Amino acid sequence: MVQSSQPSLADLSKQARERKAKALKPGRLITNADLKDFQNVPVSVSKAAEKATPSEETKAAEVKAPASSEDTEYAKLLGEWRPKFQAVVIDYKNAVNRALVLQLRQKYVYDSAHTPDPTVHLWFAAEFERTTKEIESNKEEVTKAEKAIEALKVEAGAAGLREGDIAAMIGELPKPTSTDLETPEPSESR
């Protein structure tokens, strides 16, 4: 038996627990009794600490001027469109994920259909056919969700949203996978 040079899952788990245990070690608790040891120790104050705290003048200078009415209007526009894009993106991702689940189910049914019992084989054949129909229906859902995203992009662009903001609201979309099973349908009889 050839052993892999990669650590086992048990080793990785042990290493993760050790790292976590090291990270969670509590710091030293200093009590009043410990402070007695430091009563006559000279103390120096660093000027860096004073410089690290911004003065009131610096704080006032850092406050930005109020946004223009154009900026606030655009921010409102973004706020109105963000939930719309979130909804269509979720619909699309759900359709793509459902396609993956259906593809896995179809493969499982196909692989499980090889049984000597004709009754069980017929059940698997019927399940394979039902899953195939669901896959076809799901392809339409994915296409419909893609079209909804494209339509919303056009509508948002017409409303004045910038392309970069539209792309950011959509984010990276998963690509639909081929849901065509590359194996023949199980036959009705064996």
Provide a descriptive summary of the structure in words:
With 190 residues, the protein is an all-alpha fold. The chain contains 7 helices and no strands. α5 packs antiparallel against α6 and α5 packs parallel to α7. The C terminus is likely disordered.
- The helical percent reads 55-70%
Query: Whole-number average pLDDT?
Result: 78
Class derived from helix and strand content:
mainly alpha
Query: Percent of residues in beta strands?
Result: under 5%
Number of E strands: 0
Order of helices and strands: HHHHHHH
Measured between the Cα atoms of the first and last residue, the distance is: 38 Å
Question: What is the number of helical segments per DSSP (H or I, 4+ residues)?
Answer: 7
Radius of gyration, whole Å = 31 Å
Give the overall form. flat
Assembly type: single chain
Major sheet: size, sense and barrel closure?
Answer: none
Give a short synopsis of this structure.
By secondary structure, the protein is mainly alpha-helical. The protein has seven helices and no strands.
Task: For the structure shown, list the relevant keywords.
190 residues, mainly alpha, 0% strand, disordered C terminus
How do the helices and strands line up, and which of them pair or pack?
Blueprint: H1 9-23, H2 32-35, H3 47-52, H4 56-62, H5 69-112, H6 118-159, H7 163-170
